[in-house]
Specification:
Helix content: 55-70%
Number of helices: 13
Radius of gyration: 20 Å
Strand content: under 5%
Oligomer: single chain
């Protein structure tokens, strides 16, 4: 079976990662990989990128000794990598039990269980999730992603962290061009990490996984927010969107 994207691949991936110890070994492997990437960005030594491959060892050991099922990575290395980071994000955020409950009907499915949702149901669910703000706003009138983005970035501290992260991103790109050192680009994920940490500590809202990695809509909105904060127009835009949501909720109450 061919998988078009992460939405199609995710149920198959999670079926192969049900044993708790297998998931723990994956966390260890990811910690090794990320540590090597960060070291590569700091030292500008590309050999650390090769060392990052050692992160696959714990993951394969987890499948060999605990899951007893070959990981579905062969043939889908990119999608599998994205699914891996999605799994890690769910584990660290504490939302994995809810995801397992949705897919398997129980928060603790046995190893070898299969998902109970169809591919079409999963695609419909993921599409709705891309326009989900968070538990605080289960209903909203917005169909334009910009308004949804604004509602996810209301607290000044969170907004400023994202703006600083964008300046950092463009600073890294500019420095890599000026000094003709492409290795500086290894530091780009730091800007993404700043935003994710801010959302998990300062303003907890739903973050679509595709947007967290990269999506044109998120990149556009981040740049629009950065310009808006610098010019002072973002806070007026925030007030407009908040008023529109408040009016909608009053009419629906």
């Amino acid at each position: 079976m061919k998988y078009r994207d992460l939405t199609d691949f995710w149920p198959v991936f999670i079926e192969a990662h049900l044993h708790p110890w297998n998931r723990r070994f994956h966390l260890i492997g990811n910690a090794v990989m990320i540590s090597c990437w960060i070291t590569a960005a700091i030292t500008l030594n590309p050999y650390w990128l090769l060392a990052a491959l050692l992160g696959y060892v714990p993951s394969w050991l987890g499948h060999l000794f605990f899951e007893g099922k070959e990981p579905p990575t062969l043939g889908y290395p990119v999608i599998s990598g994205l699914a891996n980071f999605k799994l890690v994000g769910l584990i660290l955020s504490g939302t994995l039990p809810a995801e397992l409950e949705r897919l398997f009907g129980t928060a603790s499915p046995a190893t070898g269980s299969t998902v109970v949702v169809s591919q079409s149901q999963e695609r419909e669910y993921q599409e709705k999730l891309r326009y989900y703000i968070g538990a605080k706003y289960p209903r909203h009138p917005f169909t334009n992603y910009w308004e949804i983005f604004v509602m996810k970035h209301q607290r000044p501290m969170n907004v400023w962290v994202h703006v600083i992260a964008m300046f950092f991103l463009y600073g890294i790109i500019t420095a890599s061009i000026y000094f003709r050192n492409w290795q500086l680009l290894f530091a780009i994920p730091i800007s993404q990490g700043m935003g994710l940490i801010s959302h998990n500590t300062v303003e907890r809202t739903h973050i679509d996984f595709q947007d967290a990695i990269f999506s044109p809509r998120a990149f556009y909105c981040l740049n629009r927010m950065m310009v808006g904060v610098v010019t002072g127009s973002y806070w007026r835009e925030l007030a407009r969107v908040q008023n529109e949501l408040a009016l909608y909720l009053r009419t629906k109450s």
